[in-house]
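User: Teach me something about this protein's shape.
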Amino acid sequence: MPLPTPKNGEKRSKFMSRCMVDIAAKDEFKDIKQRIAVCSSQFQDAESKASVVLGDEDKILFFSSAAPSVMQHYFETKEEALEDAKKLGLKGIHPHTTKDGKTLYMAGPDHKTFMKRHDEILKEKEKSDSSLWENIRKKKERIKSGSGEKMRKKGDKGAPTPDQIKKAKGE
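Assistant: First, the predicted structure itself:
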């Protein structure tokens, strides 16, 4: 059976608890010391692959593949992070330490607050993109019923981009 691995943003203590229960339930390692060693090894392996490691004692791992757009919000300077915070409607910034010891900065007072706002923005964008197709369909119906409107052509101001159309169609 595959061994548990840390999830994106999971604290070391939470992972260790989850891992210990998981492998105990599978009856894979009889000795508790053996289970601790295996789970600890799993966490250390994931830590070596994480793009950002937060904290000293109870580490939290973040993987770039889990949310690529989040990685665009790590900055080398506090000023860049503060500017990003303004764009996102957040106050303050917080630091992250990379696996090589470098300090990066991110918008928001803490990572949880940043992620909450980031997810809100993604949901708003997804909703507006999905409603694009609905708006196009309604406009076509109005045109058919003689509204006098015209569909915007590619390149016209306000016309949807090819990417927006693909996304609206679910491609």
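Now, about its shape. Residues 66-115 form one domain. The CA atoms of residues 102 and 163 lie 36 Å apart. If you'd like, I can walk through any region in more detail.
User: That's plenty for now, thanks!
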